[in-house]
# Entry
Amino acid sequence: MLNYRNINILFFIAILMLIVVSNYYEVGIFAYLVLIAVYILLIVIGTFSIRQNFYFKSLNSGNTSKKEIALTFDDGPHPDITPEVLNLLDAYAVKATFFCIGKQVDNYKEIVKEADKRGHIIGNHSYYHGHLFDLQSSVKMTHELNQTRNSIYHAIGKMANLFRPPFGVTNPLLKIAVNNANLISIGWSIRSFDTNRSQEYVISRLKKNTHPGAIILLHDTREKVIPILKAFLPWLQQNGYLVVSLEKLLQIKAYETI
Ligand SMILES: [Zn+2]
# Structure
């Protein structure tokens, strides 16, 4: 498996081999540069693609052949859109997971409470979701994760176990923070691109890619999620897909028992 550890071992071996070979043959600087470029490319792919489980394991889909999937909504709660999403999910008797930003939880506690009351799972998505989140020390990241956990606890009285890394970006320091905070990292198997593509594109992408065990990434921060759900939820029903909770799909506990 091409994870961070194995890539480093391979890179080390490749450099050693080049050094050994250079004792017998002429090895140009170009060979070293190519090797370094490939190494950097693999690190970048691993960092930006949570599905590779490059630095640590995230649960990205359920291990089932049944037509069961889970819906996840990131970056909320949003004061206007999240309540609309909650009503729509109720209309289709669907339970989802909301990976909330801690700051937003503090700002809109009642909405989080309502989501919990209606049977949805609340997960941790960092406190600020800053663009520089992943460049922080592991101590600062751990602090953000714990801060969010506390915000969720104050809102719903439960200690959230599930964490989705902001932007799906991972690195060795985040691995330490996730371990320190004792969280389960959740990725996705289908990214909807609902923040940057048209609703038509998103709907057709979701219909095309939905598969047994899928974890679908959506955002309850943009108005277009409503028409997307209005098209996708009935399509799931018509095609025999059952939306289940992440707890059921992944056989995990969303909250710590205290
Ligand atoms: Zn996010």
Observations:
- The chain has a mean pLDDT of 96.
- Residues 74-75, 125, 129, 166 surround zinc ion (CB under 6 Å).
- Residues 4-48 form one domain.
